[in-house]
Amino acid sequence: INAEYMGVVSMSGLRVLVGVKRVIDYAQKIRVRADKRGVETQDVKMSINPFCEIAVEESVRMKEKGLASELIAVSIGGPASKDVLRTALALGMDRAIHVETAENADIQPLAIAKILKKLVEKESVNFVLLGKQAIDDDSNQTGQLLAGLLQWPQGTFASNITLNADKSSATVVREVDSGLETIDVSIPAVVSADLRLNEPRFVTLPNIMKARKKAIDTVEVGSLGVDLAPRLATVSVEEPPTRKGGKVVASVDELLDKLRTEAKVI
Amino acid sequence: VNTLVLGEYSAQRGISAATLSCITAAKALGGPITLLITGKDCKQVANDAAKIADVSTVLVADSPAYANPVAEGLASLLNACQTKGSYSHIVGSTSALSKSALPRLGGQLDVQPISDVISVKSADTFVRPIYAGNALSTVRSSDKLKLLTVRPTAFDQAPRTGGSAKVEDAPAAAPPAANDSKFVSSQVKTSDKPELQSARVVVSGGRGVGSAQNFGIIEALAAKLNGAVGASRAAVDAGYAPNELQVGQTGKVVAPDLYVAVGISGAIQHLAGMKDSKVIVAINKNAEAPIFQVADYGLVADLFTAVPEMTQKL
Questions:
Q1: What pLDDT digit, counting tens, does each position of B155-169 carry?
Q2: Is A32 an interface residue toward B (CB < 8 Å)?
Q3: Least C-beta-crowded within 10 Å: which of A86, A175, B85, B178?
């Protein structure tokens, strides 16, 4: 256990770190590359991962309520990752750290978590907010991996976060398989945002202008001394089997007849 | 190969269908299968679990501490099991519990987990969907220990009978850390209706259903078909249906014999959660809705007349 970061929560507010990933925009059509090594990213619209945006919004609300003292956005990726950091700054983050890698470097969740751990320690962070998953690799791991590395408690799939008065713990409502679960998470902690934690605000032009004055520190990923080697080798990426749909029936009677005699499912 | 499976169960249904699918995935890995059962007063469940085909050992962690386990406690227990059993693979389903605990263990043991496995190619090579299932990625793990969550709909359920595993106490986990999360309460609805993820029939409603009250016609059709009720994200966002019924990329993934999509347009994020269903029916008044492109049978009709008519004629 890293004693240095246990129970150092200052009364002035939490130091919050939020992860921000640049992903293919959710509305884009995904095309598998001809060489089957990945998906096409050339000339495809990229955006901030929606769950990361929710995490950003939640941290900004914490600051607005006087619960957070500094909000730090972190993105790990190629030079273009600065775009999503600009968005995060325009949404209200105080400053940003860009951990720069080669464009399209394969940095897997465990390595991401190790990088975040370094930054948590360097920046004396005591609350980490991440999206529960990125909509590109759909892994849903980074928050849990980071909590495991830090030996901090975790509140995954949060749909509500309430900090108690002295900021020593948070009550987290989690989306679980058959409903909701409430847990008490002592701080420092890692919390991952689910879809219904909040509705992120729109980025306004004045805030985009203001964000230009905020600092983005660039850290070369190699300087952090983290093992970045991928543990998973991608053997191939392929198109899923396609369904042959499109058959139309004229009436409820015809539908029920088809389900009984053709599909035999009722 | 020597696999530990994290078992889940409920008072009403016993060992979960998802856990039975995990056993099948573990069988595909080869090697003996150990099933971990945790909970308060769970000895009977453990004895039932010992009858599951192909399970060689059942480990029981029977303690009030596991009545409502937090991820920290569960990861700690798995860690203790791993120390004692030196497993090559630890497998859980894509449940909220496994998705929380297994990657945490990965952080502790320096392992890169593999989420949502839909096919086992060999003991180190797995297929998993990425980009909401719009691509399938085959990955080979170089970690000594493999931590997998498997998608239950992609694997048949192992038979509940035919096995005769030995039942042993699980090794004791390290005492809880002072900073572990604490369970406060759960707002979980228990129901005797079929469970969304294992139901043979699912009837889902979308934005087109229009209100929470109108969802009654979805429930009535589901009840007539002895099926479960699902919902699109739009319907959940609008408050027509609770969160846990959401089917899609970030909600539940289902693959029933029959999926009836009512008033659902068919965003890719929704298709990600149901396109492996055997037969898909779409009922929507908009003939241009993308859901019709994946539907085996499409009915362009007003759902408020078509769905009650269907319920009545079944």
A1: 999 999 999 999 999
A2: yes
A3: B178
